[in-house]
Fold Citrate synthase-lysine N-methyltransferase CSKMT.
Amino acid sequence: MAALLPSRLTRFRAASRLCFPHLCRHHSSLTHELIHNMDKKETWDRFYTENRSQSFRHFDWFFSYRAVSGFLLPFLSAGGPGDASRLVQVLDLGCGTSDIGLGLFRDSPVPVQVHCADISPVAIAMMQRQVSECRLEPRNSRSELRFLELDCSDLSGFDSHSVDLVLDKGTTDALLRSRDGGERASRMLCEALQVLRRSGSFLQFSDEDPDARIPWLESESGGAGRASVSVQGLGTHRGVCYYSYILTHRGVC
Ligand SMILES: C[S@@+](CC[C@H](N)C(=O)[O-])C[C@H]1O[C@@H](n2cnc3c(N)ncnc32)[C@H](O)[C@@H]1O
């Protein structure tokens, strides 16, 4: 089973040292939860609750919006609507308290509707509170930002082929690296392709090597019969390489 491949577990331990250095030092039971059960809502509720502090701070898996804004923003214009009255639709799967969705909302020159979705109500409540307190001003006054408590392996609340840009930073990784998360990762991929517009892009940010992730993406999206997969290296941080896997509907790009 993919989730138990030793390379994936070893990589998670390396990544977790980067992402949760304070937890790894104490080797708490939460670290154990994170290593084995990152597919569980309870694990993440606990993670966000225990890491909550008086003043809000974004937690970003791998890297923050600033590191990838130059890479991301062109996807908004490229997938932009032919119909000028339409908002470009962005969906961040498993947003946690990352600043990616907020950054795109703030900086996009084209009008966007950014949906930040996560299974953890704790993360969603923290984000909603932060946004209501900091009064983020979007560059395009028509842009909108929404937060949704949602299991992203069921995106039936979105119309088919309605989203221009789907983002996944660390969420598929979290599912694949959990004991029982493989099936849910596959379902999330199929659902994301179902809601993705024919001209849209689905970006998965990961530290998993292309020789492991590309065959997985091809086989799981092949079941849905519709995706082309490419990869772009994003650079190396503390010896770990990061990638963006780019999925588009076959025959479109
Ligand atoms: C590794 S964290 C990444 C968070 C964020 N994307 C980032 O870059 O910091 C994985 C996130 O996925 C969320 N998650 C896990 N399973 C999920 C599911 N089935 N549906 C929606 N969110 C999920 C968790 O609550 C957590 O916030």
Summary: The beta strands are 88-93, 112-118, 144-149, 163-169, 196-206, 227-237, 240-249. The mean pLDDT is 87. The pocket of S-adenosylmethionine is lined by residues 39, 44, 59-61, 94-96, 98, 118-120, 123, 150-153, 169-171, 174, 184 (CB under 6 Å). The chain has one domain: 2-249.
